[in-house]
What we know:
This protein is an alpha/beta fold. The protein is 40% helix and 14% strand. It has 13 helices and 15 strands. α4 runs parallel beside α5 (123-129) and α4 packs across α9 (249-261). The N and C termini lie far apart (45 Å). The model has no long low-confidence stretch (mean pLDDT 97).
Amino acid sequence: MTYDFDRVIERRGTNSLKYDFAAERKMPEGLLPLWVADMDFPAPPEVLKDLRCVMDHGVFGYTEPKDDYYNAVTSWFGKRFGLDASPRDIIKSPGVVFALAQAVRAFTRPGETVMIQTPVYYPFFKIVGDNGRELAANPLVYKDGRYTIDFDDFESKIAGRSVKAFLLCNPHNPVGRVWTRAELERMNEICGRYNVIIISDEIHCDFVWRGHTHTNFGLINENAVIATAPSKTFNLAGLQASNIFVKDPAARSKLKEEINRSGYSQLSAPGIVACQSAYSKGGEWLEALKVYLTENIRFVREFLNARLPKIHLAEPEGTYLLWLDFKNYGLSQDELDKRVIYEARLWLDSGTMFGREGEGFQRINAACPRATLEKALNRLERTFGGL
């Protein structure tokens, strides 16, 4: 089947967070937005067809998934990542961020310490701080355009701060690393020695580029909490369905109890249908999308090399979120943000949203039609090309 990812779809006027909330986010109107991590592509047509059946039925009562739902989820992660999971290992959640917050509450107490690796997806900071936990940061090491883990700092922070939980991001947002099995095993060994529970956000696991392999943390540690969702993969974030794998019965019981205390129970009827449909029928669409996104990333890389050589692309091993290094311009983050917003007329994600280690960076979402991406890069060239 042929899929048209070049079609530009008007999203303004749809209550889109990406397009319709500039004023509420204290941004000027009329910016070209390539910030928040949703795609400008429709969900797979197979999924849309199944959702139309739900709409036509017209009754949206309380809904629970049946075996077909769980079989679709476990089959996807079994075939693609080798994860041997059963339906009992899955906890339903409206989203990965919600699940991460519940896990922090389930496995730590107020005042205890949770580790993250900065720069990192900005909700991680709020998940820790808003729940009254202390934050320990293990800053990633940026050298020669690539990020690595400072394992000495990793262990010393865990030991010195009595860390109780570690929030892992893999593939890593925003720096684009896909951690190798050896890196994951070393983190797991250290955490194991200090009885640190690992909570792994793997929402971008389906976007891993050639030469790299995603290792589901459940293959390394069956006591870990693995947070997944079809939202990034199939552009279904607004339908709020995610699946959290917890094989250890005691840990699974703890997390379920915490979620129950929040008052949350059923997924939405459309969310259940969309998730099951995507994992059952969306594989062909995803493979076509990955080809398109690979070309988008190549387009950005070649554009920067030819026309904006001072901007360095941290080469992505995974995700469709590109981490651009503007430090060669010698601008403060505030100066950089102002040029991007008020001169280039772009809405990107400022690097320091991801922690102070993001100083001098911008994150750009490449999951859009190439014409949109080209327009954004041309705006960057007009603003930064002569500097």
